[in-house]
Input
Amino acid sequence: MKVVIWGCRGSLPTPLTALDVRAKIERALAFAADHDISTPAARQYLIDHALPFWVHGTYGGNTPCVQIIGPQAVKGCKEYILCDAGSGLRSFGDAMARAEEERACRSTGDVTPTTTAQAQPRAGARFHILLSHLHYDHLQGFPFFRQAWAAGSEIHFYGCHPGMQEAVERHQGQPFFPVQFDKLPASIHFHILEPEKDVNLAGVTVQPFMQDHPGDSYGFRFTYEGRSIVYSTDSEHREHANHESYGFLRHFQDANVVIFDAQYPLREAIYTKENWGHSNNFIGVELAVRANVGHLVLFHHDPVSSDRVLDDLQHATQSYADMCAPLGKLRVSIAYDGLEFEV
Ligand SMILES: [Zn+2]
Ligand SMILES: [Zn+2]
Output
């Protein structure tokens, strides 16, 4: 399987400001002053191997949307699995339309380049969108999902909240959006899932499970050919998570990857933001070690966390993981928009 992160920010989209970009340029120029940057290869090397990620990149500002890639084509139909419909869903839809356009141009020999804005989605794809819950940051990308505006697209929503359909439709109702949900040309369906009951989506086994969050949220465990990915965002782990008998651990047990809500630093999570429905990086490590997880991906970043803060968070979390488990046993990554990895 493969994972692509299209949106990793929690609560609301968080774009960089002009000052943020300027600070990155300033730092890069200061750093470059002591290095050879006379050739493209030297500059490339500096960017890739010397500058920290917070300087040469950004963790990004889109709200949650994660693509799980399994066998993809089932019975001749292109199928896509997505977790949540935050603003990252727009980036997924745009990238997909652009890739389809380029493929079509190649097959017809037409080399006319198109911009992403011109690329038209092709009919015949089926999208499976699993909603962890119905808060804005997990829905707000859908009205801008290009494939919802294409006749011939098939979109299936899945979730465990009985009010899911009403919430998705209302979110795109008057006076919040100019075009009403029932005017979308795509064929759209809703499916209520039962917690802890497996379903098969596009060849991948999916099991939803309940999480501690205001109004409840649900995580999803994906299994395909013996490999497992757990998507667990908007989920609080309180003091009783330290007990040996913490039942929630079974959802993480032996997973290859856990995408984990680590929105708040430990101090805030315990003292000022208890009951807000989110977790911290340290409890993520402890649960991952106890459940024998291979790769922990920190996710749902706080909008107030800068790229530099998130860089530090990744290093501190990896150090803690190396203290809690034999060196290299638990790999820690921090999600950014555009991150892709094999599972
Ligand atoms: Zn959220
Ligand atoms: Zn939430």
Summary: The mean pLDDT is 92.
